[in-house]
Amino acid sequence: MTESMSPAERYAAARVRAVEEATALAPFREMYDFELDPFQIEACRALEAGKGVLVAAPTGSGKTIVGEFAVHLALAQHRKCFYTTPIKALSNQKYNDLVKRYGPRRVGLLTGDNSINSEAPVIVMTTEVLRNMLYAGSQALAGLGYVVMDEVHYLSDRFRGAVWEEVIIHLPESVTLVSLSATVSNAEEFGDWLDTVRGDTEVIVAEHRPVPLWQHVLAGRRMYDLFEEKDARDGRPGGGRREVNPDLVRLARMENTRTFNGRDRRRKNGREADRERERRQRSRIWTPSRVEVIDRLDAEGLLPAITFIFSRAGCEAAVEQCLAAGLRLNDDGARRKVRTLVEERTAAIPDEDLHVLGYFEWLEGLERGVAAHHAGMLPTFKEIVEELFVRGLVKAVFATETLALGINMPARSVVLEKLVKWNGEQHADITPGEYTQLTGRAGRRGIDVEGHAVVLWQRAMDPTALAGLAGTRTYPLRSSFKPSYNMAVNLVSQFGRHRSRELLETSFAQFQADRSVVGISRQVQKNEEGLEGYRAAMSCHLGDFEEYAALRRSLKDRETELAKQGAAQRRAAAAVALEKLKPGDIIHVPTGKYAGLALVLDPGLPAGRANVHRGFEHHDGPRPLVLTAERQVKRLATVDFPVPVEALERMRIPKSFNPRSPQSRRDLASALRTKAGHIAPERHRRERSAAADDHEIARLRAEIRAHPCHGCDEREDHARWAERYQRLRRDTKQLERRIEGRTNTIARTFDRVYALLSDLGYLRGDEVTEDGRRLARLYGELDLLASECLREGVWDGLKPAELAACASALVYEARTADDALPPKLPGGSAKQALGDMVHIWGRLDAKEEEHRINQTEGVGQREPDLGFAWAAYRWASGHGLDAVLTESDMPAGDFVRWCKQVIDVLGQIAEAAPDGSPVRRNARRAVDGMLRGVVAYSSVG
């Protein structure tokens, strides 16, 4: 190539090489045994030029190379670099990667429960740790040159996303920001905002996957390609476009056709033969079992694979099914390597705990090359699964979607059992963004030529919808930023009220809100033009049709109002009837999912038991806990009782009855059916409609009949135009309110938070009081509640284990709706303190209502959840793991995670409590009591 160049060209090329070799990028590229991709080189050059960068690229494309270049630059310039990640597991992983490259002396780690070499020039940390350092004005920020924010798309997370924006806004101007994100559809918008708040920022978007991804559907014994490549019109292969595989479309159509009917036998022989063929084809379509899927992937050379199952129990069941089927993916040599590594990593775990943790069953699966991976597992076990998978010693992992969130654990294939998952409130289709995140694990760079995403065939599957899911590669980044109480006192402490308000208006949330107003304003203008046309179309030669339409609308509104009043009265009567129920009453649930015979276990009166929903005590009425005749224990709501209910009969509830025990439920449900199964419920008589006797309705009907437009031949045609006019007018007013509501939204929320904190004595003008300084050291959802408990001395007389129980209520949230009996609580002072905490929360809740601070908008204090108090108390008191897990009915991984969060909040309480106070002393002792056994030797929280 060089020989064919002219002397001038050779000279120019040499000049370019000389310039490149003089850059910091040249020695950095030599550290890798592969060529960097163009997007990586572009981002690194922008960084070296002093610009900030936003890199949006698919999972597995190698965008962390850009973050590592920021580390390289910082060390070369004798400055510091903070590398932030959203989860501790990812922090640990990145710490180990950087230690291998730069050595343990130059790299440190800071997470909620780990602190290693915190004075190092390169520190890996969770984003929350950096946020806390910024508010505390930490000395560690001196000399900071670069901050890498890995997985910055977490900014959309409604629980933690605000932390990312806080860091981006508050970082010193001298710090260069490196933002690494999954592929998002509004990267340019996010880049524009970064440009506004951080200065010159280069946006680099890479759509190309380094390892091509093939999409498949596995139905029965056959693996179908999801897409079929169509050649271009000129006959060039690959020059056309991708279409949904017609075989799949035909398969879906065939399965959705009506099942073969016996009468068809009497039809013509040709049609009968066609149907027979269809029936035989249909019999070959089924959803393969988990064992069949792994066998098929193994036979096709598509292992290792991650199968995503949106259920922890499903992941564990999948491993059990593989073991029961005798599946073996490892040879003897691999099995010995697995056992050696596992025994080495678990050497610190006492033998009695291993038995409790299901160690031996778990090890058997690992030796065969099969494992589960979910948040309910012990963190140490999860780490071992990850390490074995990366080493190729575990070849099939059944995981929940949490595995897709950042952990570097790529596979050759990814399997999705279903395209529906439980989102905490309902079963919902997975989004294109989630699909991209999950399937992004398929294809290991430098190992696999291609990756494979396999979706299992399900009844009523729509291949076209699946293709749309797979073809939509991006999703928008939406801010979840809201000012919290802790944020407010920290901001006012540093900047005063006015400057704090201005800072919050620079948030990405406000940036997006302001941009959206432009489009809404245009829509308002279009609507106003439409209103003029509708007004002309509804005009009537006999009179004012707008006036006539208003009368008709008033009549309709009055009828609707009376119907609502009637429904409210019926609900009130039903609530009064529910309040009369007692444990042991047999009732007939009139409607809803659990309609039928039921036994009242707990009347669920508001005064007897606080509920997790805001305003329950005033609005929701009783929520009886019942056992249905079908053996289900459920807490019902007033919506299940549209009419009053009465006890049909009574029966005794055995003292030994345990709602968690299937046998106990079965026995009591059987007794219930025997006792009252023959009793028919009383039918409720329908009452006379209130509208029949209403004077206002009679008056409106008379006015309508007397109006001139009532006699118009085109009355109903005019009325349709009037209805359209009214609907568009209502929509326009709503858009105008949205414009008004989106302007300065974050600042207005801050004003309400500021007013509440001023009322409670945490702020005084631009000054933060002593109480406010204490609140500034408390982070978390219930920061204000914790501060109030410290101020009122609620925890002063508690022992360490009792304080741990109270601290648990500040962090714990049950995974599922609270349908069971009230949680077990420690007695004595702890029970009193927990009750006081709920009482204080009630006061704060009322105060938030007064200041129009709404929890549904992400601001405010949820009710403390007491569901982990007994487990925290028992563990901090020194009881064994077996006893605590059995009593709490909780997976080991969840138990460890909640314990670590309790330890974290106890540390905050110790820092915030006055010097020498018993609370400070006991909080530290409680930490010592909690940080033992499985909690102490689990390095990932």
Helical element count? 35
How confident is the prediction overall: mean pLDDT?
82
Cα radius of gyration in angstroms: 33 Å
Low-pLDDT parts are 232-239, 258-268, 607-619
Strand content: 5-15%
What is the CA-CA span between the terminal residues? 55 Å
Number of strands: 26
Q: Which structural class best describes the helix and strand composition?
A: alpha/beta
Strand order of the largest sheet: 4-3-5-2-6-7-1-8
Largest pleated sheet: 8 strands, mixed
Helix content: 40-55%
Topology at a glance:
Elements: H1 7-21, H2 25-30, H3 38-48, E1 52-56, H4 64-76, E2 80-85, H5 88-102, E3 107-110, E4 115-116, E5 122-126, H6 127-136, E6 144-149, H7 161-170, E7 176-181, H8 187-198, E8 201-205, E9 213-219, E10 222-225, E11 227-229, E12 242-244, H9 246-256, H10 269-282, H11 290-299, E13 305-308, H12 312-324, H13 332-345, H14 351-356, H15 359-367, E14 370-373, H16 379-390, E15 396-399, E16 413-416, E17 420-422, E18 427-429, H17 432-439, E19 451-456, H18 463-471, H19 485-504, H20 508-537, H21 545-579, E20 585-589, E21 596-602, H22 616-620, E22 625-628, E23 633-635, E24 649-650, H23 662-676, H24 695-706, H25 715-742, H26 745-759, E25 763-764, E26 767-768, H27 770-775, H28 783-791, H29 800-811, H30 828-850, H31 869-876, H32 881-888, H33 892-912, H34 918-930, H35 933-936
Parallel strand pairs: 1-7, 1-8, 2-5, 2-6, 3-5, 6-7, 9-19, 13-15, 13-16, 14-15, 16-19
Antiparallel strand pairs: 3-4, 9-10, 11-12, 17-18, 20-21, 20-24, 21-22, 22-23, 25-26
Helix pairs in contact: 3-4, 6-7, 19-26, 20-25, 21-24, 29-30, 29-31, 29-33, 29-34, 31-32, 33-34
